[in-house]
């Protein structure tokens, strides 16, 4: 009865409180969670950067696999979480509980099935990810422990997104931050004090992710949160249809990011380990800004779910425009700062390799020129995804790292070499913006006619 009362209070808050205040309240813990997740990678990049250029390049090789884990985790997390938010908006608590269990346990089981094949085919997998001879041994050491932690990382992402889409992002933030801070503490201890090198960084990341998973699982059922229970696990075709409808845009976005990272590794590998290291650093730096943007955009998703499910479309539209205006303004400011201090940012990770600094600085400056356009793309993607506009949401999700990035990479690298690789992401960002504008406006117009 107490849980039901708390859920009723949440329904009233989500459907009546001022939209702008709600977005900020829900976005803040999501921003912290997303940026904290990025710190897992940033901490490794910083400390591994003290080892060698080859070690820095090696974690760039593993980046596509981490993107794959995120793709699957976001697929089940957003797919089940979007349904949960709409179900709570229409007061279907039982349906929400079943979907929470279906999304969580399916992701964990799927992640566990990857471990044995991953060890059997580890060498060809690493080669396919872009590992060249000079970085292969380091990449293998790092990949071994990340592979063992795969089911925990995947299902942690599911739990975090389910809690966020229920309006409980602050609880997810606690679990994510616990693992991140533990990782930052363990990295220097294992890498330098125990002289374990890149293997120590991998163990620190894997162990921290598992601890974060345990905390997230405990936090998920507190108070008005939907408890994830094995007895509610009842996989069915309709349940997976809902997960596909709500999660396909996320799977497409992160899946394209995975494939794009593989292609980028292969393209950069032609220019040696310094180029691989430079783009590895660039990925980590832009991940911080992208994570903050995604975290802010996630503030709109539970509002969309609750209010769209309740038929309060005007509140959905207000939330959309508020997020677009604020995110674009902040991105412009961040881009200016990033452009001015790009060399210093790259040097922070690898100060004694002039070639890494040269390649990374130019790439980061080019990325800063186009980054303000990404605000509209990200907010539109999340808005479309949460109101169950699966096809346009998937199109926008695939654009930035897939539909535009991949052909642009091939064309520009062919004609301009390394400069073309550096120009690829900025070009894809602008093309994605051109696609997202009419799709977002069309959905808003359609919603007004309901």
Overall mean pLDDT: 88
User: Quick one: overall form?
Assistant: globular
Q: How large a portion of the residues is in β-strands, by DSSP E? A: under 5%
- Quantity of strands, as a count: 0
Number of helices: 20
Which residues sit in consecutive blocks of at least 5 with pLDDT less than 50? Answer: none
User: How can the largest sheet be summarized?
Assistant: none
Q: Give the helix level as a range of percent.
A: over 70%
Please compute the radius of gyration using only Cα atoms: 21 Å
What is the CA–CA distance across the termini?
Answer: 35 Å
What is the N-to-C order of secondary-structure elements (H for helix, E for strand)?
HHHHHHHHHHHHHHHHHHHH
Assign the structural class, choosing from mainly alpha, mainly beta, alpha/beta, alpha+beta, or little secondary structure. mainly alpha
Overview of the structural elements:
With 450 residues, the chain is an all-alpha fold. The protein has 20 helices and no strands. Helix 17 packs antiparallel against helix 18 and helix 18 runs antiparallel to helix 20. It is globular, with a radius of gyration of 21 Å.
What are the salient characteristics of this protein?
about 450 residues; mainly alpha; about 85% helix; globular
């Amino acid at each position: 009865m107490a849980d039901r009362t708390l859920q009723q209070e949440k329904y009233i808050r989500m459907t009546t409180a001022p939209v702008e205040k709600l977005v900020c309240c829900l976005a803040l813990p999501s921003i912290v969670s997303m940026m904290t997740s990025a710190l897992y990678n940033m901490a490794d990049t910083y400390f591994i950067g003290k080892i060698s250029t080859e070690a820095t390049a090696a974690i760039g090789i593993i980046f596509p696999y981490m993107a794959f884990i995120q793709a699957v985790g976001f697929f089940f997390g957003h797919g089940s979480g979007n349904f949960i938010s709409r179900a709570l908006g229409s007061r279907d608590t039982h349906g929400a509980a079943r979907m929470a269990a279906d999304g969580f346990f399916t992701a964990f089981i799927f992640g566990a099935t990857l471990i044995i094949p991953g060890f059997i085919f580890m060498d060809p997998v690493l080669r396919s990810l872009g590992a060249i001879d000079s970085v292969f041994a380091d990449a293998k050491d790092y990949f071994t422990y990340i592979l063992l932690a795969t089911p925990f990382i995947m299902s942690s992402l599911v739990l975090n997104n389910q809690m966020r889409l229920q309006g409980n992002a602050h609880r997810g933030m606690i679990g994510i931050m616990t693992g991140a801070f533990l990782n930052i503490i363990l990295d220097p201890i294992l890498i330098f004090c125990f002289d374990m090198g890149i293997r120590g960084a991998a163990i620190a990341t894997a162990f921290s992710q598992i601890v974060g998973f345990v905390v997230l699982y405990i936090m998920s059922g507190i108070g008005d949160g939907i408890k994830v229970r094995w007895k509610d696990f009842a996989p069915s075709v309709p349940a997976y249809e809902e997960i596909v409808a709500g999660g396909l845009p996320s799977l497409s976005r992160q899946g394209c990011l995975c494939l794009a990272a593989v292609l980028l590794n292969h393209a950069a590998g032609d220019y040696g380990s310094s180029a691989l290291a430079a783009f590895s650093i660039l990925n980590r730096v832009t991940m911080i800004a992208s994570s903050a943007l995604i975290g802010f955009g996630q503030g709109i998703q539970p509002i969309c779910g609750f209010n769209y499910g309740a038929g309060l479309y005007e509140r959905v539209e207000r939330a959309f425009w508020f997020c677009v205006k604020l995110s674009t303004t902040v991105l412009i400011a961040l881009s200016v700062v990033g452009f001015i201090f790009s060399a210093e940012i790259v040097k922070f990770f690898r100060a004694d390799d002039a070639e890494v600094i040269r390649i990374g600085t130019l790439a980061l400056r080019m990325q800063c020129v186009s980054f303000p356009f990404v605000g509209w793309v990200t907010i539109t993607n999340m808005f479309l995804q949460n109101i169950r506009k699966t096809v346009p949401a998937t199109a926008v999700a695939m654009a930035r790292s897939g539909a535009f990035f991949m052909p642009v990479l091939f064309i520009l690298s062919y004609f301009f070499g390394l400069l073309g690789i550096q120009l690829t992401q900025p070009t894809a960002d602008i093309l994605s913006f051109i696609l997202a504008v009419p799709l977002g406006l069309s959905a808003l117009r359609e919603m007004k006619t309901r």
